[in-house]
Amino acid sequence: MYEKNGEKFFIVDAHVHLWDARPQNQSNIHGKQFIDCFFDYHSNLSPESEKWDYETYLYYGGKRLMKDLFEDGYVDHAIFQTTLLRDFYETNFSQFRETQDLVEANPGKLTHNYAYDPRDGEDGITEMRKAHAKYGFTGVKLYTAEWHGESRGYKLDDMWSRKYLDVAQELGVKNIHVHKGPTIRPLDRDAFDVADVDKVATDYLDLNFVVEHIGLPRLEDFCWIATQEPNVYAGMAVAMPFIHTRPRYFAQMMGELLYWLDEDRIIFSSDYALWTPKWLIEQFVDFQIPEDMTEYAPITLDQKRKVLGLNAVNLYPHIQVPEELKIKTPVGANA
């Protein structure tokens, strides 16, 4: 919980990672390229006081994660978004077993989303069913730009992707998080294109599609899709740190999201450990649309409460919010 001037905010960090990018886990040059690109994002968009050294950034472990999120970072609940990158890392980029152990050791604080690759065909569906029976996840993270063999990505509306979405729907896995944002070396920019979200959001009305990184740099494309598809949400990972380096750009992004979507479909994320949540939360609570940007309305405290946590709770209703941190305005969503 974060409190400022007597105002209290329930915090859900809806996109965090526990990764291992050390050289011994890198399968090839692409593993190093990927984490080096992450480190550049971290170094260029973080305040000087929040920058990590490179060695820590490669692997920080669960103890450091819990401190950064829950002791220092005001977070009440965090959601792991699993990233595979099987062709780049020996034991994947996200550490599934280590993450799951952390979830089980901290009941009520952490949610662990599954990840699949539809190019695995029937074998992947079998594994997904087994994993769901064991862990009961309600969300998945998809990475359409991931390389696998000769393939350099896939579309959400590909035949096999639709088969997996059918199974997700059958199992009650409602929240489909999709990385649709800035390209990361060595992946291809067009594989992050947000256009395929439009097709599946129309066809799978019982699923929520959280577009991570709000489709940047294709914000306009994302907004035109999301305004017509009420089951499409804006995941703010990567967009949030611009509040520090490019505050007017951040104001433009928030203004456009509030105009085209609504205040109930914008989800706070630090993308930890790309960035730590503490300074992002502090700066967002203090943030306001500049007065000369008259095309956008000021952001209210209740809108900030929704963005910082209550909208994510609506997607993940197992997260318990203390009564004093709720707001009277109902949050409408496809939960």
From TrEMBL:
Q: What phylogenetic lineage does the species belong to?
A: Bacteria, Bacillati, Actinomycetota, Actinomycetes, Mycobacteriales
One annotated GO molecular function: hydrolase activity
Q: What is this protein called?
A: Amidohydrolase-related domain-containing protein
Per UniProt, what is one Pfam family of this protein?
Amidohydro_2
Q: Which residues form the signal peptide?
A: none
PANTHER family hit by this protein: BLR3681 PROTEIN
Q: Which InterPro entries match?
A: Amidohydro-rel, Metal_Hydrolase
Residues forming the Amidohydrolase-related domain are 12-317
The species is Gordonia humi
